[in-house]
Amino acid sequence: MAGESLIPVREKRKLDMAVAQTGLTLEQELALEREKNPWEAQAARFDLAAHKLNLDPGIWKVLRYPTREIIVHIPVQMDDGTIEVFTGYRVQHSMSRGPAKGGIRYAPDVSLDEVRALASWMTWKCAVVNIPFGGAKGGVICDPKNMSQGELERMTRRFTAELIEFIGPEKDIPAPDMNTNEQTMAWIMDTYLMHMRQTVNAVVTGKPVSLGGSRGRREATGRGISVCCDEALKHLGLTIEGCRVIVQGFGNVGSNAANLLYRKGYTIVGIAEYDGALFNEDGIDIPGLIEHRAKAGTINGFAKADGCDPDELITRECEILIPAATENVITSLNAADLHCRILCEGANGPTTTVADDILEAKGVFVIPDILANAGGVTASYFEWVQDRMGYFWTELEVNQRLDAIMSQSFQDVVAYGETHKVNNRIAAYMLAIDRVAYTTKQRGMYA
Ligand code: NAD
């Protein structure tokens, strides 16, 4: 079976390789693995925020664990005629404030703990920006880079069929995440509506505009990040002029954030990807780099910047560092080396809890993921609203509404932190938990 049964072997191999590469002892490597467990990271922050809120112990228990966890084994006929079985997850953390909402990712290292953490982050994220959704996430253990379009389509359709009773516009609404895209959403929507025998385009968001997607959705996460950066500069008394930005990850989130910031006049001095990095102290021509990457398939080889080491780049001096790639890139191993004034988290879970403490001691102003990257789900909410109305907004309308929600949410979180004397991350959790706890209590416990 491609998936769960292979994890222990893969994890063991990863640990052996890490021990060989980092020179850490096995105990230190195990401690680092634990530090990187996203579910434990989420739970630690949740517990701290719940404690500071003096949360009712019963509600604490309700909100700490997901409502529903679904595991499916998905048989797929591969192009060579053999049958492979993939393991997929959908975790619905909360539906207290509305239907569950969250992306689906395809990757070889997807795990239930990761999907659980991402599902709960979705609950908190939707509550921070005050939109009427709960939180969910899905993932399939697979290696999408080594699968054909046909194999990906069959896997996506069968995964959707396995989840058919659990998803829907009033139940749980998937969206793209790492290694899934507008095409994946189109397949999910088509499979769902073939079963329902009617048009139901609000079952997914992040789909192509021609199938009921929203204008502005593709850029929305990057746009939300750019609004948070503007607000942070205002809050700290800094200016866009001379503001140096380093972005890690040049995918959907990172490239759109870099491009929007570039257009606003920020100086994007560095871009890090997994296979290389670029630096130019006078600023990188981001539209030029996007064009280069589209042609070359990599950022490497771009003439108007110097190549450098991606791990070292993120430690260089800058006003804003935007990790927009993946989880656990800022840990106890490198947090002390960062030289940024503001950390704006485009990715989900890029910073471990141990690293949080180090950054706080260094005085870094952190814009936490559940606020910074909430522009994506906010535009997904707009898409769901437009689909249900059957009436579609202009890009300007989407952007104006998005900017207003992101600015307000930034101000709410910072004000909450100042009132309760906690950092921005714990403030965002407290604000979110408070909102979800309120509706949970108001609804009461059924039976
Ligand atoms: P993506 O797959 O489009 O882009 C990720 C990019 O990061 C890729 O270019 C990849 O090569 C690069 N990358 C991967 N690991 C790296 C590493 N260790 N160092 C440097 N670069 C690395 O994915 P995306 O949609 O841009 O999502 C990125 C992150 O943002 C994820 O954590 C995702 O959960 C989060 N997020 C995405 C959205 C969205 O709307 N797409 C919304 C909220 C949060």
Characteristics:
seven-stranded mixed β-sheet; disordered N terminus; 447 residues; alpha/beta; five-stranded mixed β-sheet; 12 strands; 16 helices; binds nicotinamide-adenine-dinucleotide
Describe the structure.
This protein is α/β, with parallel strands linked by helices and 447 residues long. It has 16 helices and twelve strands. Strands 9-8-7-6-10-11-12 form a seven-stranded mixed sheet. Strand 1 and strand 2 (83-94) form a beta hairpin. The longest helix is centred in the C-terminal third of the chain and has 26 residues, at 395-420. The site of nicotinamide-adenine-dinucleotide (NAD) has 24 residues, from helix 9 and strand 7.
Any idea what the radius of gyration is? 21 Å
Q: Regions with pLDDT < 50 over 5+ consecutive residues?
A: 1-7
Could you give a short account of the major beta sheet?
7 strands, mixed
**Number of separate helices:** 16
Q: Distance N terminus to C terminus?
A: 40 Å
What fraction strand? 15-25%
- Could you give the order of the helices and strands? HHHHEEEHEHEHHEHEEHEHEEHEHHHH
Strand order of the largest sheet: 9-8-7-6-10-11-12
- Fraction of residues in helix: 40-55%
- Ligands (ions, cofactors included): nicotinamide-adenine-dinucleotide
Mean pLDDT: 94
